[in-house]
Design a protein that fits this description.
- This protein is mainly α.
- It has one domain.
- About 65% of the residues lie in helices and about 0% in strands.
- The protein contains 3 helices and no strands.
- The radius of gyration is 19 Å and the shape is elongated.
- The mean pLDDT is about 80.
C-alpha cells in the first residue's frame, strides 16, 4: 500500500520487494532531485510514480470501454451512459 504524500515520509507500508531496474542517468537525476524536493526517498518516489501510472492506465481503459459502449447505444441508452461517463469523469477529476 502506498500512502498519500506526507503520511509516512518516504516509507512504503506493507509488504515490499527489493528490485533492480535500469534507468537513464538523466532521468535518475530528475527522480532524485524531485524526490529530494518532496522529502521522499528514491524508492518511495518511484513507488508513487508507478502507482499513479497504473491508476491512470486503468482509468484510461475504463473510459475507452465506456466510449466503445456509448458508440453502439440507442438514444435512451446514450442518456444513461452519458450520466455514467460524467460521473466517472468527476470521480477521476475529484481525485486531484
Amino acid at each position: 500500500m502506498v500512502l498519500p504524500m506526507g503520511m509516512n515520509r518516504g516509507m512504503i507500508v506493507g509488504s515490499t520487494m527489493k528490485t533492480a531496474i535500469s534507468i537513464q542517468d538523466e532521468l535518475l537525476e530528475q527522480v532524485d532531485a524531485t524526490a529530494r524536493t518532496m522529502g521522499l526517498s528514491r524508492s518511495r518516489f518511484i513507488a508513487l510514480a508507478v502507482d499513479e501510472f497504473i491508476r491512470k492506465q486503468r482509468q484510461d481503459e475504463m473510459l475507452r470501454r465506456l466510449n466503445e459502449v456509448y458508440e453502439g447505444a440507442n438514444p435512451a441508452e446514450r442518456t444513461l451512459l452519458k450520466g455514467a461517463k460524467a460521473k466517472f469523469g468527476r470521480t477521476v477529476n475529484d481525485r486531484w
